[in-house]
């Protein structure tokens, strides 16, 4: 059986994802689609709107055969580490291709870009450092350095967040000489940062915004969602009482900061360059999470960077936790969240080829990194009413979700 | 001017306290009454029902001339350290006597008891250790050891929590040869653990219980409170939205535990003898703070001991914080919360006699121990709505409360 990998957040799963799944299947010719998905917290440092189990169910209903969880330590990171964790997880699970969305739909642009990058890497790194030293934020510094070495072309605009991710996947594959074909799927209609709905395909950003701003599952929104997603969104809120957003966690992270010394804050991953003082200074009087970040934000620190840092404070993810990644050549394990019959058949054959354990339950004492997952999961459910928390956490200890 | 010291929690201030104040003034013949009061958290490891500033106002209205704050590191402790901090604070402020409540109302019983204790201290300590080794909780072990050396007499029953405190005050005074006369004020009517109201004098326990169980300021309760206390209780709830109780903090402390490793938990003061494992194990599924403690409780660990431990987890008070006390001969500072004109006149004369700084604002960078106070205060206000927290915290930065 031939498998193709997708790297996703499904926050929430929507019609654009259905399109991506169909195209990926068609273009890769794979029998089995494997999605590696962020868990409780996402790359931009936000909590997922509904939990990973409910998102898994939505994805399995629409053509994904296997859903794997990208560990927190890779998921809530900038593109390099994010790509490293995702591509490595897919490699362990034996995919022969990875399909990612791009504007052009031509993977050659990315592989050609990689050659340019490799040839000019020293210049790139030097320029990047210069721009950073000037006080520029990383994404902007990196974009300019790419541009200077001729990498920001019309073919592959690295100012587009999706293209940066795509390029990171290709770079990871090629850096490690992995036997994986990168495939670029041409994106349809809506753009990453779009805040308006465009017909039945809308960006996850615009859907989340509308859901969280209190519209709920309006007709306009359900049009952009497969039926099973709408059902999972509905069930999740009915059973848990909320759709998660950062403001739900504001009290917790504020309390935590208010009871930590600056020295303790500096032990947290992402709290660098004296940010601990800035965090403490701005904490007094911040009336919302949004306002707090706005008070900390400078040219050097993007919203995303700060949101990730707050996710690490919230989950108590320390620099010591991060050191676990330093000496790992690959991901320490592959966590299976759910699968179809096809996925199960595929994994039965693949399992013995894997160089790391395939696990399904969080309780398994496989690797110290699972302690970080436990913290992230506990944090995620902390905002549920006390009598619901345990019920939702119990999902972490169940066998993987199975769908016909 | 002659000053007399009181050691109090005023949680809340009630008619029994008015009686104690009048008797103390009469029996000591002092011109100035100085109360050293627990701040945000109390000896039993509970949050105070209303904050220290509102309790200070209630006390100043009823005859106390100066209210000083007992630092958290002394306040949320068993009787020895509690007494050490309170007596030392009063000594620094120059009192010539300390009045405490007792059943008999005869201080000689306590000083005689001290002589018996000193003579038999070695035996006491040995017996205490034996009982502890048998798995007995400290209060019970200590009571039995006192009994064995002939200290639990009808005159001074050390099974009574108030008598234990009184005895600790006397012991601290006499151990350090402080020029302070201990005076026992005969208690009137209600008992420490009474849960029923008895006329217009009721125990703080019964008043709190009735207030928190939703009766609010009923006629029956206001009868037991001076007018100013009822006013402060009313104002506090109106302005902050709550009267504080442990259950308000359950979510915060639960979240904190769920994102700490057992290793991290063991760095917290009071988390000893492997309790970190027991705390983690019982956290899953605990639906309330009450239920959580009940699951942890054993013969060895009393409710109070566990509540104090949870207060330290909640406020992030570490064993390292506690080490600050080890090398201090006296309290590091005296914190003034409020005073009357009489109190002010007294302090003007006394200030230059003090061997430690007299401070009023929390922001003053006088001593590292103030960082612990900051954590305790921030924690206390964490359960207020976001827009109120800052407003209430600002009280910590104001000059002391002044009353005519």
Automatic annotation (TrEMBL), chains A, B:
| Residues bound to ATP | 7-20, 101, 162, 187
Q: Which SUPFAM superfamilies match?
A: Nucleotidylyl transferase
Catalytic reactions on record? cytidine(34) in elongator tRNA(Met) + acetate + ATP = N(4)-acetylcytidine(34) in elongator tRNA(Met) + AMP + diphosphate
Write out the entry's keywords from A to Z: ATP-binding, Cytoplasm, Ligase, Nucleotide-binding, RNA-binding, tRNA processing, tRNA-binding
One Pfam match, given by its short name, reads HIGH_NTase1
Q: What is its main location?
A: cytoplasm
The yes or no answer to whether the keyword RNA-binding is present is yes
Q: Return the EC number.
A: 6.3.4.-
**Subcellular compartments:** Cytoplasm
Stretches that traverse the bilayer = none
Name the PANTHER family for this protein: TRNA(MET) CYTIDINE ACETATE LIGASE
Q: Family, per the entry?
A: Belongs to the TmcAL family.
Q: What does this protein do?
A: Catalyzes the formation of N(4)-acetylcytidine (ac(4)C) at the wobble position of elongator tRNA(Met), using acetate and ATP as substrates. First activates an acetate ion to form acetyladenylate (Ac-AMP) and then transfers the acetyl group to tRNA to form ac(4)C34.
Recorded protein name is tRNA(Met) cytidine acetate ligase
């Amino acid at each position: 059986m031939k498998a193709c990998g997708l790297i996703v957040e499904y926050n929430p799963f929507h019609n654009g994802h259905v399109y991506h799944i169909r195209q990926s299947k068609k273009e890769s010719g794979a029998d089995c689609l494997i999605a590696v998905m962020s868990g409780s917290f996402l790359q931009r440092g936000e909590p997922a709107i509904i939990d990973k189990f409910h998102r898994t169910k939505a994805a399995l209903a629409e053509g994904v055969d296997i859903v794997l969880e990208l560990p927190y330590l890779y998921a809530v990171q900038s593109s390099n580490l994010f790509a490293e964790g995702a591509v490595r997880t897919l490699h362990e699970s034996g995919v022969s291709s990875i399909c990612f969305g791009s504007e052009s739909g031509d993977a050659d642009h990315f592989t050609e870009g990689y050659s340019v990058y490799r040839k000019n890497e020293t210049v790139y790194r030097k320029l990047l450092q210069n721009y950073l030293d000037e006080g520029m934020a990383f994404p902007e510094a990196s974009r300019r350095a790419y541009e200077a070495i001729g990498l920001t072309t019309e073919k592959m605009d690295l100012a587009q967040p999706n293209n940066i991710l795509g390029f990171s996947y290709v770079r990871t594959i090629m850096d490690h000489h992995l036997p994986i074909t990168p495939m670029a799927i041409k994106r349809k209609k809506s753009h990453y940062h779009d805040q308006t709905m465009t017909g039945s395909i809308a960006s996850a950003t615009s859907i989340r915004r509308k859901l969280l701003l209190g519209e709920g599952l309006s007709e306009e929104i359900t049009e952009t969602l497969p039926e099973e997603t709408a059902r999972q969104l509905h069930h999740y809120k009915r059973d848990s009482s909320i759709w998660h957003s950062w403001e739900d966690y504001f009290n917790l992270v504020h309390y935590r900061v208010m009871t930590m010394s600056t020295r303790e804050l500096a032990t947290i991953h992402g709290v660098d360059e004296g940010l601990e003082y800035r965090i403490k200074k701005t904490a007094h009087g911040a009336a919302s999470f949004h306002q707090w970040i706005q008070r900390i934000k400078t040219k050097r620190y993007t919203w995303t960077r700060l949101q990730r840092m707050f996710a690490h404070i919230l989950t108590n993810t320390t620099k010591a936790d991060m050191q676990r990644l330093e000496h790992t050549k690959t991901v320490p394990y592959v966590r299976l969240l759910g699968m179809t019959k096809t996925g199960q058949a595929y994994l039965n054959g693949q399992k013995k080829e894997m160089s790391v354990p395939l696990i399904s339950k969080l309780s398994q004492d496989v690797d110290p990194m699972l302690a970080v997952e436990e913290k992230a999961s506990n944090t995620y459910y902390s905002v549920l009413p006390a009598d619901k928390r345990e019920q939702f956490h119990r999902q972490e200890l169940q066998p993987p979700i199975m769908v016909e």
